[in-house]
Specification:
InterPro entries: EpsH-like, Exo/Archaeosortase_dom, Exosortase. This protein has about 300 residues and is mainly alpha-helical. The protein has helices at about 5-20, 25-30, 30-50, 60-75, 85-105, 110-130, 130-135, 140-145, 150-175, 200, 205-220, 225-260, 260-265, 265-270, 270-300, and strands at about 180-185, 185-190, 195. Helix 4 packs antiparallel against helix 8 and helix 5 (about 85-105) runs antiparallel to helix 6.
Length: about 300
């Protein structure tokens, strides 16, 4: 019995040393947090001023706040595990992030500046909790990536294609119902009125925002069923397209029955909230229909 005592004391000492070593991260990697903060403040201020104030980016603050809450919620139960490789990988990563920031300032590419902020957040987490723990946070980290607006050379051609798709769907649906509608590209005609499908009505930024919010909903409710959650996440793209088409149909009908002033007034400004409600309602309906078939059906096998 006495021979076991030194071993017990040694184990207790090792545990105590490991526990005391955890707070030393703030001493060893304080520059990571400082660098992330320095790069984040001007980038987020410019994002709020130039993008979040527009209709296309109105969902940005919601995605950022819910993403940070989700990241904190998922990381609260993780234990800090210092990775020795972080000693040289984190400084190297900060050099890359710094290059992104410099190039973004020279070329006026806001998405590149925000990408640097995003990468600095990942490095901050890596230095804090280690590589393995970082992988367990991949969904919240992926969700936060939706805060970054895509580059214009990707958005512009996709927006044109989406506007054509949404306009064709809206005119086709109203034509089947007997309304006097026609279109010429993105110019829509209903009765004696003419409307233009703007980028806000079917743009790529709107699709990304709705997809991000759908991903947040799916992860919270179905994280225990990852295959089913992945299916619902993929379905958010056609759901977002459907919501935008419903918005265009609603604006056409408002203009047809209420005149041009009604179609371009407060109801037009409230259409952003309208497509969010349509997308969320459609996702809930799909979830109610598919969950009994895919989740409960699998469980009964």
């Amino acid at each position: 019995m006495q021979a076991l005592a030194p071993d017990l004391v040694e184990v207790d000492t090792c545990v105590s040393d490991t526990y005391r070593a955890e707070p030393r991260w703030w001493v060893r990697h304080w520059y990571v947090a400082l660098s992330a903060l320095i790069m984040a403040i001007p980038g987020l201020a410019a994002l709020a001023r130039n993008y979040w104030s527009t209709e296309q980016g109105a969902a940005g603050p919601i995605i950022l706040l819910t993403g940070l809450w989700l990241l904190h919620h998922e990381a609260s139960g993780l234990r800090t595990q210092f990775d020795r490789a972080a000693g040289w990988l984190v400084p190297l990563g900060l050099v890359v992030v710094g290059l992104c920031t410099v190039i973004a300032a020279v070329t006026a590419k806001q998405w590149l500046q925000l990408l640097g902020i995003y990468l600095s957040l990942i490095m901050l987490l890596y230095a804090m909790i280690g590589w393995r723990q970082l992988l367990s946070l991949r969904i919240p980290i992926l969700y936060l990536a939706f805060v970054i607006p895509p580059p214009d050379n990707l958005v512009v051609p996709l927006t044109h294609a989406l506007k054509d798709l949404v306009a064709g769907g809206a005119v086709g649906a109203l034509g089947m119902l007997g309304y006097p509608v026609a279109r010429d590209g993105v110019l829509l005609y209903i009765g004696q009125y003419e409307l233009v499908v703007a980028a806000a009505c079917s743009g790529m930024n709107s699709i990304l925002s709705l997809t991000a919010i759908g991903l947040f909903y799916v992860y919270l409710l179905h994280r225990a069923h990852m295959r089913y959650a992945a299916l619902l996440a993929l379905l958010m793209v056609p759901v977002a397209l459907f919501a935008n088409a419903v918005r265009v149909i609603a604006l056409l009908l408002i203009t047809y029955y209420g005149g041009e002033a009604a179609g371009q007034g407060i109801l037009h400004d409230a259409a952003g909230l309208f497509i969010f409600l349509v997308a969320l309602g459609t996702l809930l309906a799909l979830d109610r229909m598919l969950a009994p078939l895919l989740i409960r059906g699998r469980a009964s096998r």
